[in-house]
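REVIEWER CHECKLIST
Item 1: Sequence provided? yes
Item 2: Single chain? yes
Item 3: Sequence as submitted:
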Amino acid sequence: MNIAFFLTPKKDVIYLKSNSTMRQALEKMEFHGYSAVPIVDSKGHYIGTLTEGDLLWKLKNTPNLTFENTEKIRIDEIQQHTQNTPVSINAKINDLISRAIHQNFVPVTDDQGVFIGIVRRREIILYCAKLLDDQENDILNLANKATRN
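Item 4: Structure as written out by the authors:
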């Protein structure tokens, strides 16, 4: 199975550029209802994932930081506490699954490290559930066929 089968392409993914502001991140995450978003640099390389927790820690650890002045803080100034490790589009499906165990989504990059999209954990679980269901149906069909003979 090819990772591209599961890929949500970059054009359909909400992400932030590293020079975005904290305020832009807060507003984008609130609007879309996301708790984490990928971050890319000016050349489109995946550089990390920003989470709600990262934003809260920045707020807590920055004296006098209010929502109004979050527009002065750039995303690249915010420490990321969780690393969503990307996979290459050429990676094996086992690499994707092992990362999805610990990440809600897995960033996918091309051979040059350019962000090309994500694979959501949900898509992997749905695929696995379908495989199990198909396998169960095959077993039932074989059992029914055996009892008829």
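Item 5: Key structural point noted by reviewer: The mean pLDDT is 91.
Item 6: Recommendation: ____
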